[in-house]
Amino acid sequence: MLRRTLMAASRSTGVRKAVETVPVSRRVVARFIAGTRTEDALHAARHLMAEGFAVSLDRLGENTRDRAGAEAARTACTDLLQALARTGLAARTEISVKLSALGQLLPRDGQRTALDNARAVCEAARAAGTTVTLDMEDHTTTDSTLAVARALREDFPDLGVVLQAALLRTEGDCRDLAGPGSRVRLCKGAYDEPASVAHRTRRETDLAYVRCLGILMAGRGYPMVATHDPRLIRITKTLALGHGRAPGAYEHQMLYGIRPEEQLRLAAAGETVRIYVPYGDDWYGYFMRRLAERPANLVFFLRALATR
Ligand code: FAD
């Protein structure tokens, strides 16, 4: 119930204005977001790499409603990639991109616009010596995002794509995408989806996650295991051993600021661990999804409000 309310709030312009204007928000938000400027993102990436992590940078932004906004998002990504190349960070830092930021939801030619913009981003990533992963948004965008991914993978076979275990369709998508060279990030799914398309309980989603991960581990691609869930992390090790995959033949991924001790523990144990680092001004949707995942975060937010 609370989760549903927070997810509804994440789409409300009124609540957005209220949260963004509360001065304390930025302090609380800093727990999950590396900063607002490109330099903040580069600083975080440098620091994480020094600790032994790989990184995926996400310049926050989603649901762009006009062509100029989509072009601005594309330019921000290509500028970031050039900065990664200049600073020598591209070797272990890729970028994550939301197609809705690149124009996917435009009323006319949205998918084509997102594809063209994403292609420009992939070209810039190749020039910088790194890769791109397409984030996955709510289920109304899944077909379109996978269609764009298929088109891009013809020219950029190292393109990563995200699948969400919560969706009923995802075991099939895992089978389709488990082929040689494919990079698939498996997550539980951060959106409040209807029962017609998604598992509605945590237990069902967790069981689906294990089945999906089994398919990816048995396949010939590169599974990117995006979860903080201790049980799923243990199961990952078992599945990897069972399928003869050493660390480096798959990777763990976690979000900036979430379970940092576990991130360090896994890296110290020799696992490849990539930290997803969001940055930028457009933090509202991302922040609300993190609140919705964990009621304790809401308490933290409210306590900070009360003590300001
Ligand atoms: P949970 O069962 O939610 O959490 C397990 C434990 O992790 C919790 O008990 C808690 O200790 C800790 N934890 C989890 N979330 C939080 C939090 N917000 N604050 C504090 N502690 C927390 N979702 C998408 O829909 N599309 C994407 O493209 C996408 N990309 C992602 C990329 C990465 C690298 C990661 C790690 C996640 C991504 N997600 C994405 C989010 C994902 O779908 C989940 O919503 C999120 O990871 C929480 O699920 P969990 O697997 O960690 O399990």
UniProtKB/TrEMBL annotation:
It comes from Streptomyces thermolineatus. InterPro entries: FAD-linked_oxidoreductase-like, PRODH_bac_arc, Proline_DH_dom, Proline_oxidase. Keywords: FAD, Flavoprotein, Nucleotide-binding, Oxidoreductase, Proline metabolism. Gene3D superfamilies: 3.20.20.220. Its EC number is 1.5.5.2. Residues 42-300 form the Proline dehydrogenase domain. It catalyses: L-proline + a quinone = (S)-1-pyrroline-5-carboxylate + a quinol + H(+). This is proline dehydrogenase. Pathway: Amino-acid degradation; L-proline degradation into L-glutamate; L-glutamate from L-proline: step 1/2. It comes from the Bacteria. Its cofactor is FAD.
